[in-house]
Amino acid sequence: MILRKIQPGSCRAWLSRVSLRQELCFFSSVPPQPVPPLAQTLQGYLRALEPMLPPEELSHTRRMVQEFGRPGGLGAKLQEGLERRARHTKNWISPWWVQWAYLESRQPLPVHSSPAISLPRRDFNDWRSQLIFASKLIAAVLDFKAKINTIPGPKHDYIAHHGRSRRSPTHITVVRNYQFFQLDVYNSDGSRMTESQIHGQLLRIRSQSWKTDKEPMGILTSEHRHTWGQAYNRLLRDKLNKESVRLIETGLFSLCLDSPVMRISDEKYASRKAAQVLHGGGTFSNSGNRWFDKTLQFVVGEDGSWGLLYEQAIAEGPPIATLLDHILDYCEKPDPKRAPLVPLPMPKKLYFHIDRDIKRDIEHAKQNLDILINDLDVNVFNFKRFGKDLPKQHKMSPNSFFQVALQLAYYRVHNEVCAACDIVSLRMFRGGRTEYVRSPTNQTLQFIHAFDDPSVSREAKLQLFREAVDAYAALTDQAVKGHGTDRHLLGLKLQAIEEGLSIPKVFMDTAYGLATHWKLRTGQVPANTDSVMCFGPLVPDGYAICYNPQADHVHFSITAFNCCEETHAETLAVTLKDTLCQLQELLQPTV
Q: Are 521 and 456 in contact (CB under 8 A)?
């Protein structure tokens, strides 16, 4: 891992997020990410605006885009700059994207940035089984060898990797009842501890963490990044605090041993479980068991709930999915190693000196986090009527099928289409991160208008549906090959800034604001198990929707903000279920 030091202005901040290494090695055979042709991107941008803009506004924007893209114009000059950048860098957009999308964001990490993955509930209901499973989980992650860190600051965040230091970390952080412990997970000879050794150490940690009347230090990391950056500087003035924070930051990952999720009904338990992993459930629940700057935080509750919370400045979904697949596979196997008969040192409890200023910071953070958590509406459900096999049987892309269904459901709730982004991976390219596939398309809009029109025949609706699905599949294929629209547009804008130019008018146009106001933030996160990812909306009046399609069912999570009177996660969930059933009827009529 790498440590990067940055001093923004006169205020120096050293905050870290431990994160999963995105690339374990680099192969020169991996192709570079292409810079798409300028004309292609501008045409794609205009096509994306057509379903959302009235004709007169579209004409205005079209003239502006044509002026930007004319031969020898500003767009051509910026395009040349991007192509030059691509020749001399590992990836022409990824560093900018990480800086712009993650490190410069001042929003709190919980809800706004860090995704959570809720895994199927384990078959236990007490602390004994919790610790046995947690021991297995730790051993599985150590087996996978994932270690990386990042650092936030008052103006923007930085990346810090501790694995390439002179002495690599050999410990993890375990949190229970708001209390942090350093747990060494390697023996003195360098071998990793066995599950039975880890289990014995977790028992020791439990015996030292009975009381919950401790100050929830981890709550500080949930703050607005500027606020946390200032609190961090105050915290590190004290030598004891500085050492405790250092041990948390340099640990390989965190394990959060949570109290049970409040269970109201089986129907709502899945939503509560996902929310618990995402933000801890609030300051009277398990939020004090988090250190949100750590990219890898594994959550194991006494009730069998478990999952993973990760900070995504370094890692996107695919490597996390690989890690989880490894864990699930490992947990099915017996521990192959015998525990050596050597005494182990007591896990080190981390202490903090809390003065009046830090106490005030904690109280403010508690209030702000509870407000954020109470504002988030989470709805997780398992749609059991069909899964990805249904669209496959009809020779349709499953992801494109569900994307068109989401647009139709949104239209039925809000009587409009909206800018939606679907996240796809560009890891096939050197240093590649992600691209957006945007909707709706013209074909989707035509299908939406026809679907609830009784004068349109079933055959016509089915044809329009196929065209909408195929159009979205074509956009996805284009994006996966590095010819998406949105990262290129962002690159052109940032290239202008890099050259000291004014931001081009095309990016100041109201149409661009509409096109990038993502009311639907979506993501297909396929996995080999019944997991579901959960994260917050990108905009106050939007939704975030994740789905994990299995062969005969689909897990969905929908989030919205309660502060917006127009959005409601449960309403959209009910509408989506009904829409999916009607699409099944369209494909396979029962009468």
A: no
CB 118 within 8 A of CB 274: yes
Q: Is 530 helix (H, G, I), strand (E, B) or coil?
A: coil
Distance separating alpha carbons of residues 25 and 479, to the nearest angstrom: 24
Token pair in block for residue 21? 């290494």
Got the DSSP string for 296-315?
A: -EEEEETTS-EEEE--TTT-
- Alpha carbon distance 16, 3 (integer Å): 10
Q: What is the pLDDT of residue 427?
A: 87
Reported residue count of the chain is 591
Question: Which domains, ranges and CATH numbers included, belong to the chain?
Answer: 102-372 (3.30.559.70), 384-587 (3.30.559.10)
Single pTM value for the model = 0.90
Give me the phi and psi of 178, to 5 degrees please: 70, 10
Q: Are 44 and 477 in contact (CB under 8 A)?
A: no
Instruction: Report how far residue 411's alpha carbon sits from residue 553's, in angstroms, rounded to the nearest whole number.
Output: 23
Query: Residue 187 CB: number of other CB atoms within 10 A?
Result: 16
Q: How far is CA 253 from CA 88, 113, 471, in A?
A: 34, 18, 42
Element (H, E) at 112: none
Cis geometry, peptide bond prior to residue 440 (ω within 30 degrees of 0): yes
Q: What is the H or E stretch that residue 289 is in?
A: none
pLDDT per position as a tens digit, 115-138: 999 999 998 888 999 999 999 999
Facing residues of 556 across strands?
Answer: 381, 547
d(CA 493, CA 351): 47
Q: Are 436 and 420 in contact (CB under 8 A)?
A: no
